[in-house]
Amino acid sequence: MRKLIYDVAASLDSFIAHSNGSIEGFQAEGDFVSDFLERIHTYDAVLMGRKTYEWGFALGMQPGEPAYTQINPQLKNYIFSSSMHFENGPLIQLVTEEAPNFVRGLKTQPGNPIWLCGGVS
Question: What global pTM score does this model have?
Fold first, then answer.
């Protein structure tokens, strides 16, 4: 069975962003960043919710476009949302069913570990 790994860059007090969603002031370079980017290559799937996925829009990503492909071009994105709408593609799938059931099924499929990306708001 595949492992599900929660892997985020976080501050020492366990925050992944400020309460307003900004990452201003968070360090963006150093060994920990290089290590984090290397780990992305070990995953073949990433799970994230709508808010985490939409964060990429500020960086120029468009709805329906998979994230992190510049780092890992084979990374399949699973976006959990009941309010988003876009067409699924080879590297992106909108998931509207209950997350626990979907993840249990995904873990039984062959492959590398699954990356759980993002936070809870």
Answer: 0.86
